[in-house]
Amino acid sequence: MAIQLRKGQNINLTKEAPSLNKVLVGLGWDARSTDGKDFDLDASCFLVTAEGKCRDDRDVVFYQPANLKHFEGAVSHTGDNKTGAGDGDDESIKVQLDKVNAAIARLVFVVSIYEAPERKQTFGMVNNAFIRLVNEETGEEVCRADLSEDFSVETSVCFAELYRHNGEWKFKIVAQGHQAGLEKYVTDFGLTLA
Ligand SMILES: [Ca+2]
Ligand SMILES: [Ca+2]
Predict the structure, then answer these.
(1) In the chain, pLDDT over 70 holds for what percent of residues?
(2) Does any domain span residue 194?
(3) Residue 164: which of 115, 90, 101 has the closest Cα?
(4) 167 C-alpha to center of ligand 1: Å?
(5) Could you tell me if residue 85 is inside a domain?
(6) How many domains does the chain have?
(7) How does the average pLDDT of the chain come out, rounded?
(8) Helix (H) / strand (E) containing 184
(9) Residue 1 pLDDT more than 80?
């Protein structure tokens, strides 16, 4: 039985799922209405040091071909979904915990709306958002969170963080949205991506 988490809650993965190493983080959403335009949400994963910064532009994994696979092999994105249509994971990110560099303290999972200002789209137009963490080797869903939070004007939402705590791995539901879009995280984490 997967553990259900709410905003602000965390789970100690090292205790709850001791054999966990290959992690699949599945993220899903549906567009409430699209008025004809594509509604394209993108999942990204930032690898962040204890100082709160990415080491360089290679520490973000997202749909761009050059950034689909992390250079150290720790994180990979399974590919861009441009509509969110259907149930189940719309995009997913794989993490191999034992390959995460010791310099990385947190993996931050953010979902943002592609071309949100141009298309005048916000998270207020998103339904059924969720994040779930699966043991890829057993197929077992370890935990999930349905983000029932009432978002409105946000164009990016930090769904969750996978982080080290006293030598153990924990997973926390953040569910914090921002109007500034993905650029906010790019700036906060010290990246120079356009
Ligand atoms: Ca997408
Ligand atoms: Ca969907």
Answers:
(1) 97
(2) no
(3) 101
(4) 33
(5) yes
(6) 1
(7) 94
(8) helix 182-188
(9) no
Give the CATH number for residue 108. 2.60.60.30
CA of 26 to the centre of ligand 2 (A): 11
Distance from residue 191's CA to the centre of ligand 1 (Å): 21
Residue-number span of the structural domain to which 42 is assigned: 3-188
Element (H, E) at 131: strand 126-135
**pLDDT by residue (tens digit) across 149-167?**
679 999 999 999 999 999 9
Distance 25 CA to ligand 2 centre (A): 15
What ligand has the least distance to the C-alpha of 113? 1
193 occurs within a structural domain: no
Q: 180-183 long-range contacts, Cβ below 8 Å, gap at least 24? A: 180/155, 180/156, 181/112, 181/113, 181/116, 181/117, 181/155, 181/156, 182/42, 182/44, 182/110, 182/112, 182/156
Assess if residue 44 is contained within a domain. Answer: yes
pLDDT at 32 over 90: no
Residue with tokens 């567009």: 31
pLDDT, tens digit, 9 for 90 and up, residues 129-156: 999 999 999 999 999 999 976 799 999 9
